[in-house]
Amino acid sequence: MKFSPGGGKSSATAAAIGLVFLAGCTSQPQVVRSSTIAASSSTATGAAAPTGSVGAVATGAGPSGSVTSGLTTGSVSSDIPTSDSVSAASATSEAVRTTPVAPPGGTGDISATVHSGIPTTAATRPLTGTAKVGSITTSIVKIVTVNVTASGPGETSGPGVTITLRVTNSGPRAASLTNVGVEVTGKSGVPGVQVAQADVVPFVGTVAPGKTAEGSYLFRLDSAEQKPLTIAVNSFASSPTVIFVGEPS
């Protein structure tokens, strides 16, 4: 076989062109893939994520089945206080804690005598006696055995006693009778249950200087408990309680 010089040059030229063509065919997809990845990454990283959230991962299919991916770079917010805010809060707390406070008013001192709030009791008196506390003198007018008829919630019917008291005011001013309290205790220490009835009127209003006032109180108490009786009368919140003890006649 013979080769023509001109023909050899043509074959070499054709072969070179073919190689260039093949190289271009094989390298071009790589360039496309690179640009695709770059564009995808640029798009993903360029998108701003919402404040306080972490960016989402974006995926997509590239040429020749390749997969491109990118992670957004959104910022994450925080409520953790800064060192400046902590220092300011500490300074405010320190100022409040060290602010001078005025001492309490009043003329008392550590050696002053403070009276007890516990009610005191005056000397015990017989049922026929009298007891004076301040300007108020208390006495028992009468004690009557009765049969109680229940008329309200918690009340029971049965034996009882009605006690009528008298107070005399020897002071220069009127004395209130609104807070007068009366209690009755039976023989074995059983307390009488006070019962309200229309014909039994307790102390009300005031007693004027030099005047007297009467009030009645009804108690449910079994007959076996009525002798002896202990009757406690507290004329005023700050006054000692007056005690009468004895057997009704």
Descriptive overview:
This protein has 249 residues and is α+β, with helices and mostly antiparallel strands. Helices cover 23% and strands 29% of the residues. The chain has a 5-stranded antiparallel sheet with strand order 4-5-6-11-9, with no helix packed on it. 14% of the residues are buried. Mean pLDDT is 71; it is low at 1-16 and 18-77.
- Give the quaternary arrangement of the chains: single chain
Q: Helical element count?
A: 2
Which structural class is indicated by helix and strand composition?
alpha+beta
Uncertain runs are: 1-16, 18-77
What proportion strand?
Answer: 25-35%
Which percent range fits the helix content?
10-25%
Look at the structure and give the mean pLDDT: 71
Number of beta-strand segments: 13
- Which outline best applies? extended
Q: What is the helix/strand order?
A: HEEHEEEEEEEEEEE
Tell me the major beta sheet.
5 strands, antiparallel
Cα-to-Cα separation, first versus last residue? 168 Å
Tell me the strand order in the biggest sheet.
Answer: 4-5-6-11-9
Radius of gyration: 53 Å
